[in-house]
Structures are given as structure tokens and as C-alpha cells.
Amino acid sequence: MVTLAEVAQHAGVSASTVSYVLSGKRSISTTTRQRVEQSIRELGYHPNAGARALASSRSNIIALMVPLRTDMYVPVMMEIAIAVATTARTHGYDVLLLTGEEGPDAVRRVTGSGLADAMILMDVELDDERLPLLRGTDQPSVLIGLPADTTGLTCVDLDFRATGALCVEHLAMLGHRDIAVIGEAPAVYERHTGFAERTLDGLRSRAQELGVRLLHRPCEGGYDAMAVTLARILDERPGTTGFVVQNESAVEPLLALLRQQGRAVPEDVSVVAICPDQVATQASVRLTSVAIPAQEMGRNAVERLVAKLDGRGSDEVVLITPELTVRASTGPVPA
Amino acid sequence: MVTLAEVAQHAGVSASTVSYVLSGKRSISTTTRQRVEQSIRELGYHPNAGARALASSRSNIIALMVPLRTDMYVPVMMEIAIAVATTARTHGYDVLLLTGEEGPDAVRRVTGSGLADAMILMDVELDDERLPLLRGTDQPSVLIGLPADTTGLTCVDLDFRATGALCVEHLAMLGHRDIAVIGEAPAVYERHTGFAERTLDGLRSRAQELGVRLLHRPCEGGYDAMAVTLARILDERPGTTGFVVQNESAVEPLLALLRQQGRAVPEDVSVVAICPDQVATQASVRLTSVAIPAQEMGRNAVERLVAKLDGRGSDEVVLITPELTVRASTGPVPA
DNA sequence: ACTCCCTATCGAAGCGCTTCGACAGACTAT
DNA sequence: ATAGTCTGTCGAAGCGCTTCGATAGGGAGT
């Protein structure tokens, strides 16, 4: 392992000079700088992360806490995680992957040990038990998601309330008066995940404003669960002509079932999905959808975090404005 | 930040004693141990990761390099990543998330800086450019996937050759003589990803042995691409009665298209998928499939890595034996 | 020629921990 | 009793880096 001292000796300067060349915190003459850089290259020097962290109290690591559950909106999570990792690298940070498993303890551990300089939390519940810990520490953090109380926190999220409203508006504008919502799995609501509840909120209040009838049913992903849910919906509200789907893994089953029952999309019924664009365009019907901007959320979260670490930036809630893209799955209500 | 020294003072012992209590590397009297543990709890002490890494030359971090591409078998990747993270934690390791973006440089950086003690590489190509670096370092590593040359490497993977063979066997046994393979996206073959080529290998050689005709077509995911591919296949080989699908995101589109064309599964055509069980059971037809044991692969990789770090374990290739589960998508060839 | 101020560099301290060797005291073996 | 052996604890060195204060030398200003 090549050390700073060896580089210094090789370049004929002191260790501190090499350090300053690396960090740029003091001015160095061009000739010296070049000599040092040359030595670094020749020796293949890489600064030791531990020593750096110890001396500077900065690890240059961002912790990312992803949900343990692998049964939920997986592609979105993955996309966010990758966006976080690549964005972090462009700012000189690496990413430590924590699973929700440890829960609040992970926050304590990371904060206490100086393993990471900051953290990003995903899958935030409305009243998340990790939040008090975050508030009680001076370690910067950003949430992807929106808890009930955001005081003292920085959050990045799609505006799911507006998303819900947007879906209803679109369908209402096309004349639909009876709308069914295929929600996330029951467990998602039970643990009060912010995005699911907010979407529902937006859907409901806009429906009421527009005088549209709304039926919400949670739904596990998959074909069988969707079949049961759809049957129940059509049983309770036979006049349903519009669907809003939030659970990605219910999208394709729903389309298949509707087809099977002879209900044409979009001639007989309209379907709006809340999902990444890729899912919307790859479905068997090109779906009118509100995109979940996973990449942007991940990138944004990192940038806000880096700003905080640099002493810029402050606590604030960033709600990304949803955009609805009309594709081939929605149309006017049948005469 | 509470330090070791403060704990020592609080407990009335020396710093080294506290250290030994923590590491258990020397015997400590019960009374002293308890007093120290008490102090640790009272003060809320967490050892500083950087200092530890510096002093012990061990970071207790495992680097996980995931592919940058988010367009391929995402659920499998995610599941592996989560399995890696949770398994690593049970052995006292944290996981650093690297994306493929940096390529070989990431290997150099991590190895050189001592950021991680070991690494796990996913999405290995047959002739991966990171391999020479791994061979040239004494840092332990495990590949999830199988390159062409495995000398000096430890690999964990599903035996995709056997997987391919198994799929053909199953269909052949049911009487199918004309089998079409829906492969991964063309790009996957172009960069010579091990698992895709090996599967194809297994499919082809077993088909030849059994005298079965095999047609392989790469396919991007999604409905449109699948429609084109299917049309081409049925055009070239109208008598095709068996399908093997490797691209997860082509599964549901294929089923929908077959249904749409009036080809019943499994009465008219049989479909075998290579995918996680969850996908197989949630599809519109419960799919006969060979499972991709993502969790097991992740766990296994970590355990092998930890064994290496502990000085046990050696280079070897672990090929997990594939298992085919018969569900509702395959049946005897129609009379 | 003198001070004053930069700029470029160096030396040394110290970050918080691990680990090695030393050693006091309690036991066992002779 | 004496030497030998453990067991439990301590002190100190050192891991590789950052950073602070000091300093030498070169210009600019007077």
C-alpha cells in the first residue's frame, strides 16, 4: 500500500505539501504540483479512506436506507438507488446501502460511528420512528417521501396529493363519473406510508370537488389478487368506467382481465396509471400515466444533501409537480 | 462524540482494556467487563469507524458493484442486493453500493483506498475487464455470475447451462418438437453476459441431443417488441408449440399475445419461464418455471466472502442446481 | 535599504483506535 | 519456600492523513 509519505519522498517534498496538492486548500506552485501529481501517478497512490476519515472527520460517504420489503414498487426503488449512487459519485461521495431491517438502530449506528456524513431515507412512514433521531442529530439528512410532520427535515417527493388530483381531473374531464382506484397492497396503508395515503387524499378530495364517485380498493400485486379486486369493484359499482392504478404490479393483470371480460380500453373503460414511464410505455396498452420521476428524486435528494454538507442549503420540502402524459388508455366515456 | 478514552475514564480502566472488552481478543474479568459495558451504555458510545479502519486496516465494509443498466432483470438485482446487505450485517459488515459506471476504476479505487475489505461483482461479462484487476490484488472478491475463465476467482451463480437444458427436457418430455426461445435483449448478448450465453448453450445442446428444433430470438422487454418477435417466430416456425422465456419483462406480453391469438396455454402451447418464483406465480397463468434464486445467490456470495476474510474458504465456483417447478403453463403437445 | 505582505513550503500535533510487550498478582507445581 | 505459569490490566507506539502555525524567500511600496 502506497502512503502519502512515500509519495512525498518520491516527489522530494513534505507530506503536508502532498496533502495540499490533493485537497487544494492552500496554493501550491505549478512545478511542485506537477511533480507531486507525477509521483502519485507513478506510484499508483490512493489515499487511505480510514486515515482520511479519522483526520478530517469526514468519511465522504452517504448512507442510503432502502426498505427491506422487496415486494413493493421495486423498479422505482432500484432506480432511485442507482440515481443516488451515481449522483453521489459525481460529488465525490460513495453510498452505503442500509436496509430497513435494523430500523432506528441503523441511524444511531451510522451517526454515532461517523461511518457516513449524511443519510438519505426512503420509504418514510407518516409517523416514522426514525424521525426523532434525525431531528436530534446534527448529521444532515434528506427523506425521499413525506412524513406527517416535516419540521426540521428536508424532504424530496413527488407531490402525490396533486398526482391523485390530476388523475381524477383527467378522467372527470373525459366525462367519467364513476372511478375506481386500485391501490397499493393493504400492508402499505396499514403502516401509513406517506405516498399512498397522500395519493388517496388527492384522489378523494378532487373527486368530491368535481362530484365524481370514487371507490378505493387496496390490492396486492398479481393476477389472482387483481381478479378478486376487480370483481368486487364491478359488483359494487357496475357503472365504473375509469380506473386509477397505483400498484405497478396490478397494471398488466388489470389490462388482461378487462380484455378478457370484453371491456375495451379505452373505448369502454379508461385506465390511468401512476408508474414510471417505462412501465407505462411497455404495457400491452400504452398507458396514460403520471410518471414517478425516480431518477430525479434520487438526484435531487443527493444534491440537497451535498448542499447541506457544504453548509449551503436548508431544510425544506421539495414537492415535484406531477405530469400526466396522455397515451392510449384513456378516452371519453362511452355514450 | 464519545470516545474510547472517555469510556475508559468513566469506567476507571485504561483505553486498551475497553478495546479488549469490545473485541474480545484478550480475556477480561467479568467485573471489569460489566463495568465497561455499563459505561458504554450510559455514555452511548459508538466506536469511530475511521479510527478503527486506520488502526486495524479493516473497514468492515463489503463493496457491491451492481450494473448501471436499470433496464434488465431489475427485481432479481434488487433482491440480490438486499440479500447481500442483510446477510453482510449479520456478519458485522456494511455494504458500499457501487454502480458499474466507473467500471474498472471503481475496483482500483476501492482496493487502493481500503474503503472496503472485499467486493462482490454482479453482472459479470464472459471476458470482463475487471477480472485482471481482481486477480492482481489480494483483496477477496466473489462474482455473482460466471466469466469464461474462472481461474483464481470465486463465483456464485445459478447453473444456467443446466437451466437451459432443464427447460428443453421438460418440454421435450411433454412431446414438444419445435421450441422457441424468447431471449434477453440483444444488447445483453452483445456484451457477452455469461448467464444469457450459457443458458442458450444449455438449451441448444440439450435440444440437439433430444432431437428437438430450437429457434432463439433475443427480445427487448415490453408488449410491442414481444409482438414483433412472436410474429417472426410463428412465421418461421408455424409449428412451434413450446416457448422458453428468459426475459422477465417479455413474460406477460407473451401470454397476452398468445391469448389474443386464440392460442390457449397450456392446451395449445406450453410456456416455461426462467424467472423468480414471485413472477411465475403472479403471472396471468401460473407459470412452469425455473426459479432464479436471487436471495440464495446474494447470501451465498456474502458467506463465501466472509469465509475468505476469515482466512477460511478458497477459490471455487458454486453453481446452484436449477429446479423446475411445474405449474399451469405447460402440458402435453396437442394431438 | 527597510519594512510589509504574499506565496509556497515544512514540521509537528493529533484524530480515535488497535495491538504489542510488559508486568503485577494469584496460582500451581515442585 | 521457589520457580514457573496464568490471568487481567496497563502504557505506548503507531496506523495515514489533515491542518495549524511557522518560516523562508521574493516583490512591492516607500
Helix content of chain A: 40-55%
Mean of residue pLDDT of chain A? Answer: 94
Any idea what the radius of gyration of chain A is? 25 Å
Helix and strand element order of chain A: HHHHEHEHEHEEHEHHEHEHEHEHEE
- Please count the helical segments of chain A: 14
Number of strands of chain A: 12
Low-confidence stretches of chain A: none
Largest sheet of chain A: 6 strands, parallel
User: Which structural category do the helix and sheet elements of chain A fall into?
Assistant: alpha/beta
The fraction of residues assigned to DSSP E strands of chain A is 15-25%
Oligomer designation: homodimer
Total count of domains of chain A: 3
End-to-end Cα distance of chain A, whole Å, is: 77 Å
Under CATH at level 1, the class of the largest domain in chain A stands as Alpha Beta
Strand order of the largest sheet of chain A: 2-1-3-4-5-11
- Pair with the biggest interface: A-B, 62 and 61 residues
Write the CATH fold name of the largest domain in chain A: Rossmann fold
CATH architecture of the largest domain in chain A: 3-Layer(aba) Sandwich
Morphology call of chain A = elongated
- The CATH superfamily of the largest domain in chain A bears the name Response regulator
Q: What report would you give on this structure?
A:
The mean pLDDT of chain A is 94. Chain A is 47% helix and 16% strand. In chain A, helix 5 (74-90) packs parallel to helix 14 (294-309). Chain A has helices at 4-11, 15-23, 30-43, 49-56, 74-90, 104-113, 131-135, 160-173, 186-190, 194-210, 223-236, 248-260, 277-282, 294-309; strands spanning 61-66, 94-99, 118-121, 141-144, 155-158, 178-182, 213-217, 242-245, 270-275, 288-291, 317-320, 324-325. By secondary structure, chain A is an alpha/beta fold. The longest helix of chain A is centred in the N-terminal third of the chain and has 17 residues, at 74-90. In chain A, the strands form 2 sheets. Chain A has a 6-stranded parallel β-sheet, with helices on both faces. Chain A is elongated. The first copy, chain A, folds into 3 domains: 4-47, lambda repressor-like DNA-binding domains (434 Repressor (Amino-terminal Domain)); 61-158 and 294-320, Rossmann fold; 160-291, Response regulator (Rossmann fold), CATH 3.40.50. Chain A contains 14 helices and 12 strands. At the A-B interface, helix 4, strand 1, helix 5, strand 2 and helix 6 of A face helix 4, strand 1, helix 5, strand 2 and helix 6 of B. Chain A binds a DNA duplex (30 and 30 nucleotides) through helix 2 and helix 4.
